[in-house]
Amino acid sequence: MVFMRPLRQGVLLGMLVLPALAAPAGSERPLRLAFSPYAPWKVLGPTGLPAGPYVEIIRALAKRMGLPLTFRDCPLQRCLLEAERGDVDLVIGVRGTPERRAYLHFLEPAFAPASPIRFYQRLQDRRVLRSLTDLNGLSVGWTEGVQFPPPLHQHAGLIRDLSPTTASSFRKLLMARVDVVPTTEGRGRALLRQAEFAGRIRLAPLVVWPEEDRKIGLARQSPYYSLRPRFEQAIAAMVADGTMRRLLAEGPESRSASEPATGTASGQAGRCTACPPPKPAVDAPPARH
C-alpha cells in the first residue's frame, strides 16, 4: 500500500478543484458549446454523445483551460440566437459574418484553414459549372441559416430553394427539384459516402473560397467573455504544438490536403499559422488534377 504525505495530498486536492476555480467570478454554470450537428465535423457518436473533430477541439480547449464543459444541442439558427443572448458560450463551424460579429468574438488565431465551397450536380446533368454566372437561372439547394462567402451569398442570378439540412438538399437534387447544391468540401465528401447518394451525384468544377479561415466564436454576452485572452493563448498553443492538426486528422483534411481544387476560386484564404499557401485569385484558370 502506498501512503501519501500530507503536503502531497494537499497539492493533489488543489489540482482537483482547479476547474471550479478557473471559472470567472459570478459564473454559475460550466462552459457551454452550442452543438448543431454538421457531419463529419460535429456528429452524435454511437453512444449518443457529441463527437467529431470540432467537438474534440472544444473538449481539448476546455481541458487545457481547466473549465468544465457541457453541450447545448440546437439547430443552427437556435444556436445563434442562444449565443446572442449569452445562453451558450462557444460556437465552432460558424462563419464570421458582420451580423454575427455583433454578438460573437471570433478568437485568434484561426484553428484551421478555410474549407472551400464545392458544388454538386446530378450525375446525369452535363451542364459545366465553372463560374458563378453559370448558376444564373438555376435552382440552388440552400441550407437554412448557412452563410456562404459573399461572392456566392450575394450573387443575384441564382434561385434559392431552402432546406433545413444539406442532406435534404441532396435528396431534392436527386429528385430534380433543384439543379445544384453548394456545401463545404468536407460536408460534401461525407454525404457522398452515404449509400443513398453514392454514385448518383457528381462534383462540379466551380470552387468558391471563403475570405477567412476557421475560428472559434465566443459569445460577447457569455459569463466567460472576460477570459477571451486566455482562450486565445490556449488556441495559439494548440496550433503551435500540433494539437489542432492532430484532432482534425479525423476529418476530411487528412484525405484531401494533397488533392488540388479544380475550377474558379473566389476570395483568398485568411491568415493562419496552420494554413497552406494562398488560394488562386478570382478568375484564375482551373487547376488540373
From TrEMBL:
Residues covered by region (Disordered): 250-289
Gene3D superfamilies according to UniProt: Periplasmic binding protein-like II
InterPro entries: Solute-binding_3/MltF_N
Keyword Signal: yes
Key words, A-Z: Signal
A Pfam family this chain is assigned to: SBP_bac_3
Domain Solute-binding protein family 3/N-terminal: 34-248
Signal peptide: 1-22
Membrane-spanning residues: none
Compositionally biased residues, Polar residues: 255-267
Sections of the chain in a coiled coil: none
Keyword Secreted attributed: no
UniProt-recorded name of the protein: Amino acid ABC transporter substrate-binding protein, PAAT family (TC 3.A.1.3.-)
